[in-house]
Amino acid sequence: MNRGDWLIEEQTPSYQTRWRVREVLHEEQTPYQKLQVLELEDFGRALVLDDAVQTTVGDEFIYHEMIAHVPLFTHPHPERVLIIGGGDGGTAREVCRHESVQKVDMVEIDRAVIEACRKHLPEIACGMDHPKVNLVVGDGIAWVADHADEYDVIIVDSSDPVGPAKGLFNQAFYKNVFRALKADGLFVCQVLSPFFHQSLIRDVYGVVSAIFPITMPYLAVVPTYPSGLHCFMLGSKRHSPLREGVRTPAWPTRWYTPAVHRAAFQLPPVVAQLLEPSGSQAGQ
């Protein structure tokens, strides 16, 4: 890929998202995936994995604030947090803003992603170097299976359910997440677009709701993600994200507020209908 080329991300045989590339900053084939850091014309520097945009400096704050602050403000006093994936560092950056959080285990399988983001996306990757963070290069699936009753909040900040992230979207994994959480713990994962990934959202909701007493999807608008509308899934043992007394950030945010928090769970009918029983189920 060269300057002036187009990065093309295909969602269906008839729908593509295209970005003009200003500069190729980094490109390699890791043991797990094709890794690129590109300077895009409109959204700036971007992490791209297997030709799919993961984050850009232009809009990363929306995704990272919503995947981190929604669960951390839902829990009344989170102290121990696990991040699975999140190799760009943005989720860790937001998690560490919470004063109550004492330790963050971050488990990312691809060391090359960490190194590339530290070099080319320092304003995002700075979270990985926070003193609260214990950064582990390893398999998040195995980590969860080996750590029972340990975390207040688990955030699954994964790429799409292909390649190294495929095992992060099945029943066995979510059961291990449940076991790794304390008695009042909760978790969040991202489940992509309500327009292009309806089966995934329906299946993950079915599996998670069979494990967690409280299971609620929520939405955010992320311009560089397919369709612009992005969905997250929250599973909680005890605390509702719509409970009274959700705290207000003690620092400036660019997207998240308590009002945005509440509004994110107000699902349009077209999304709410995905949660109706259909006989579909995620992989066992």
TrEMBL record:
Pathway(s) it belongs to: Amine and polyamine biosynthesis; spermidine biosynthesis; spermidine from putrescine: step 1/1
Catalyzed reaction equations: S-adenosyl 3-(methylsulfanyl)propylamine + putrescine = S-methyl-5'-thioadenosine + spermidine + H(+)
Signal peptide residue numbers: none
Name of the gene encoding the protein in the UniProt record: speE
UniProt-recorded name of the protein: Polyamine aminopropyltransferase
PANTHER family, sorted: SPERMIDINE SYNTHASE, SPERMIDINE/SPERMINE SYNTHASE
Active-site residues, as the UniProt record annotates them: D157 (proton acceptor)
Record keyword Metal-binding present: no
